[in-house]
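re: the backbone from monday

yeah here it is again, tokenized this time
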């Protein structure tokens, strides 16, 4: 079985990721023993990058290192293993990346997404780990400007009769997470604090009465 580096180098749809890893002098890492889990953006995802663009990322060595390491988890995690890590009753797995910041992996109906971006192909097994294809280049939250909609989900809180519920919506209105019914205020605040750990630029929407 080939290594991650060898497998990735044969995947024409991911040649831009190979280019980025090579520019960061990281491609050889994935020849090592590992094990690693690598989230791999497709060429289309790389071309769609904004703030920064793909070329801007390549031209900034520190930024490139941060973004590439953010796609790496230490250890081999297949889709089933990731899904099993979700706390009971919650659809979110918080994963520690090699870059240091956490990645938010949503588990809904057997489908996975990373920081709100669909994982399009899972469990590409290699001799030293596993790869998953993702539909966007994943940028560490602390590197995103606070005005970037893809880095600033909206936390919407509603209340009714002294009980509360919340939902988290991406910039385009897509719901990323939601409480299961109404909860106490303390439970709601605890959940929102946990969400802010993985989405530090989250924008709280003014509380609305139901």
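seq for it, each position gets an aa:
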């Amino acid at each position: 079985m080939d290594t991650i580096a060898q497998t990735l180098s044969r995947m024409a749809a991911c040649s831009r990721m190979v280019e980025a890893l090579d520019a960061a002098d990281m491609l050889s890492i994935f020849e090592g023993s590992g094990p690693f889990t690598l989230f791999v953006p497709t060429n289309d995802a790389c071309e769609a990058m904004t703030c920064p663009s793909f070329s801007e990322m390549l031209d900034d060595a520190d930024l490139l290192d941060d973004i590439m390491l953010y796609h790496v988890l230490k250890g081999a995690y297949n889709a089933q293993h990731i899904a099993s890590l979700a706390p009971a009753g919650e659809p979110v797995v918080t994963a520690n990346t090699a870059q240091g910041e956490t990645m938010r992996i949503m588990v809904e109906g057997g489908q996975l997404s990373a920081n709100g971006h669909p994982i399009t192909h899972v469990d590409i097994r290699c001799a030293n780990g596993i790869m998953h294809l993702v539909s966007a280049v994943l940028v560490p939250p602390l590197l995103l400007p606070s005005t970037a909609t893809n880095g600033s989900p909206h936390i919407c809180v509603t209340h009714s009769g002294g009980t509360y519920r919340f939902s988290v919506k991406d910039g385009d209105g897509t719901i990323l997470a939601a409480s299961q019914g109404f909860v106490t205020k303390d439970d709601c605040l605890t959940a929102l604090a946990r969400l802010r750990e993985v989405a530090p630029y989250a924008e709280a929407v003014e509380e609305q009465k139901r």
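The helical segments are 4-9, 15-23, 43-47, 54-59, 61-70, 79-84, 185-198. The longest strand covers residues 117-126.
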